[in-house]
Design a protein that fits this description.
alpha+beta; 60s Ribosomal Protein L30, Chain: A; Phosphoribosyl-aminoimidazole Synthetase, Chain A, domain 2; 6-stranded mixed β-sheet; 11 helices; globular
């Protein structure tokens, strides 16, 4: 007799996975959550907004997963998945409210899937949002043994009058750059071409462990700043680096001028560049140590940096806005 298990799908492993996921999701619950895992959809009640605008974003982890497969480390990439989504919606001033994940694999192992979702729940806790649901798909014959894919979807809200879209940016505004934790989750097709041995030494540890450091989640310090200070623009530094992402916060009438000497370039980028990559290519591909950039008025510089420091994050003034044609100038 043919059954689902003989076709490669183990329902019992799925049930075990869901049971562990429920425990992780419960830890992330916030006041607006009206449902628990197991239903057909997630319910969330908007509270304390007069003119709420929903802001949504979706993303995945990309080929960074290949390194996780090789090293057998499963929990950090879940944090990456959350970070890539919540940092994006944060750029418009939105507070992340809830997150849903999609996990697909060839053969489901409940312990591995549970570890991945634990990372997702950890990311949600860092972002202050709820993990309200998701999908775990076992697709034998579609994914290779030991491989999986992760994607996520975040929804946040912002008052209509407080949407940040760059319209208030003006000449002489300052740019504050937040440190990244490393490569984050972009450029890994190039990284994997440069680094063939994940056990290669990097400052006393295997380079693979450094490359798997999860993407920093910037939600909490940004929300703290917004309680007291107007932010005129924000950029999440993802694929395309500073060159592609900083200009996304303003129109074609301005340029961003960044002093390269003020950047806190993470040593991992020197390691990669020494493998034979041109510096210009590095800055067009990676965050180069700056994972998030905000634009503020000059009189708010000291207070902003103090709030960031009290929040346990590192940042510095890296440049300013000037009249121009919608590009970034790295000097």
């Amino acid at each position: 007799m043919i059954d689902y298990k003989s076709a490669g799908v183990n329902k019992e492993e799925g049930y075990k996975t869901v049971a562990s996921i429920k425990e992780y999701a419960k830890k992330t619950a916030t006041d607006g959550v009206l449902s628990s895992l197991g239903g057909f959809a997630a319910l969330y009640e908007l509270k304390n907004y007069r003119e709420p605008v929903l802001v949504s974003g979706t993303d995945g982890v990309g080929t960074k997963l290949k390194i996780a497969f090789e090293l057998g480390i499963y929990d950090t990439v879940g944090i990456d998945c959350v970070a890539m989504c919540v940092n994006d919606i944060l750029c418009h001033g939105a507070k992340p409210l809830f997150f849903l994940d999609y996990l697909a694999c060839g053969k489901l192992k409940s312990e591995e899937a549970s570890s991945i979702v634990k990372g997702i729940a950890d990311g949600c806790l860092k972002a202050g949002c709820a993990l309200t649901g998701g999908e775990t798909a076992e697709m034998p014959g579609f994914y290779s043994k030991g491989e999986y894919d992760i994607a996520g979807f975040a929804v946040g809200a912002v008052e209509k009058s407080k949407i940040i879209d760059g319209r208030t940016i003006s000449e002489s505004d300052l740019l504050i750059g937040f440190d990244s934790s490393g490569v984050h989750s972009n450029g890994f097709s190039l990284v994997r071409k440069l680094v063939e041995n994940m056990d290669e030494d990097f400052m006393g540890s295997p380079i693979g462990l450094e490359l798997l450091k999860p993407t920093t989640i910037y939600v909490k310090p940004i929300l703290k700043i917004l309680e007291k200070i107007d932010i005129n623009g924000m950029a999440h530094i993802t694929g395309g680096g500073l060159y592609e992402n900083v200009p996304r916060m303003f129109g074609s009438e301005f340029d961003a001028v960044i002093d390269k000497k003020r950047l806190n370039t993470n040593p991992v980028f020197d390691f990669l560049m020494n493998k034979g990559v041109d510096e210009d290519e590095m800055f067009h591909t990676f965050n180069m140590g700056t994972g998030f950039v905000i634009c503020i008025e000059p009189e708010n510089e000291i207070d902003t940096l103090e709030i960031i420091s009290r929040s346990g994050f590192s940042a510095r003034t890296i440049g300013k806005i000037k009249k121009g044609s919608g590009k970034l100038c790295l000097e």
